[in-house]
Design a protein that fits this description.
CATH topology of the largest domain: Triger factor/SurA peptide-binding fold
Shape: elongated
Strand content: 5-15%
Order of helices and strands: HEEHHHHHHEHHEHHEEHEEE
Structural class: alpha+beta
Helix content: 40-55%
CATH architecture of the largest domain: Orthogonal Bundle
Length: about 400
């Protein structure tokens, strides 16, 4: 008997409504996948932008321009952190300074301004040195680093020889003077010790985010500063200057000073007689002094600019014809004893040149045509970016 053929199952035909719904659901799934991909891509872009903004864009943004040369946020922040680390180490080494250091650390804007001013001065010094053709070599930087650390060792001077006893009569006994020898002999620093100290300084700088090149640059800048000051010194403060010698008499009241002037005018006494009288007076508010060669600027600080100008107009031997009220509230009579162009003493010259150089530098720092602070929201950008870590 023949087998019956089985009928194949036929899938039911979808209605037009079912087909439309299937297409719509497939489209929705596709859109959902696309939307999820877009959202994921946006999240990745936002995250990448955040990382780029915080790690690349912001650190490279300038906080100030010095003749168009930027000081970046990163450079500023690293130097502030390094300064804070140094202050903390100082406080730990000298506990008596801890409160003072803590107050400074708690004033980040003050500390930030100090650091930023140092960075601005560095740019100005390097720019002016370059303009003048002043250079510093790597060997000179290395030598200065070795000097700062204490290497190479410089031997102590040879001990002074024993002084022989003087020739005296035999009846007198003389004890010879002892030999003068150093009581302490410092241990020479080895090359290994120097390298260890240097690497320690480099590692300390790295903890603040600085590199070895940054550390050497700071030493290089100090050399540029010294050489620029040497080059500009004669321009700022000439060695030979107009100077006078004076003798002054100081008393406590204008009436007493006027009485002295009246005696001088009447020919009863000389200026030297009055100086001797005052010198013999035991009152603490009266005195007479001779002052050796001084410049008009110096005397202006002592007696006031108007009086100093008057003194430089007087003939040698001339004196002030009216009582001079000094900045200290006391009353002076002053005579000019000498007037000539002469070199300043070496120490005074060096001090005046250092002061004049710093005044020149301050003028550059405060010149808005040279130094331009970048503003955000109407305030300098650096103020919102001052690190407040580490803390004591």
């Amino acid at each position: 008997m023949a087998k019956k053929k089985r009928k194949k199952a036929v899938a039911p035909r979808l209605t037009r409504k079912q087909v439309s719904r299937a297409k719509r659901e497939a489209r929705q799934r596709r859109l959902l996948l696309i939307g999820s991909g877009v959202v994921a891509a946006i999240l990745v872009l936002v995250l990448a932008w955040g990382i780029y903004h915080d790690k690349v864009a912001v650190p490279n943004q300038p906080v100030v321009l010095v003749n168009g040369e930027p000081i970046t946020t990163a450079e500023f922040q690293k130097q502030v952190i390094y300064q804070r680390m140094n202050m903390i180490e100082q406080a730990r080494a000298l506990p008596q300074l801890a409160d003072q250091v803590r107050q400074q650390l708690d004033s980040p804007l003050v500390l930030g301004q100090q650091v930023l001013t140092d960075l601005i001065e560095e740019r100005i010094i390097r720019q002016e040195a370059a303009r003048r053709g002043i250079t510093v070599t790597p060997d000179e930087v290395q030598k200065r680093i070795e000097e700062l650390i204490g290497y190479p060792y410089r031997p102590t001077p040879e001990p002074l020889p024993t002084l022989p006893p003087p020739t005296v009569p035999p009846t007198v006994t003389v004890t010879p003077r002892p030999t003068l020898t150093p009581t302490l002999t410092p241990t020479p620093m080895s090359r290994e010790a120097f390298e260890a100290a240097y690497q320690s300084a480099v590692e300390r700088a790295r903890r603040a985010g600085l590199t070895e090149a940054d550390l050497r640059r700071s030493v290089e800048t100090s050399l540029y500063r010294e050489r620029l000051m040497e080059a500009m010194g004669p321009e700022l403060v000439p060695e030979v200057q107009d100077q006078i010698q004076i003798t002054y008499i100081v008393v406590s009241t204008t009436q007493e000073a006027q009485a002295m002037l009246d005696r001088l005018a009447a020919g009863e006494v000389t200026f030297d007689d009055l100086a001797d009288e005052v010198q013999d007076d035991d009152r603490p508010d009266t005195a007479s002094r001779e002052v050796d060669w001084q410049t008009q600027d110096f005397l202006g600080q002592v007696f006031g600019e108007e009086t100093a100008s008057l003194l430089f107009e007087l003939e040698v031997g001339g004196y002030t014809r009216e009582p001079v009220l000094g900045p200290d509230g006391r009353v002076y009579l002053i005579r000019v004893d000498g007037h000539e162009e002469r070199p300043l003493p070496a120490l005074a010259l060096e001090q005046l040149r250092r002061q004049a150089f710093q005044e020149w530098l301050d003028e550059q720092v405060n010149n808005p045509e040279i130094v331009q602070y970048i503003l955000e929201g109407g305030v300098p950008r650096w103020q919102a970016r001052v690190p407040q870590e580490p803390t004591l």
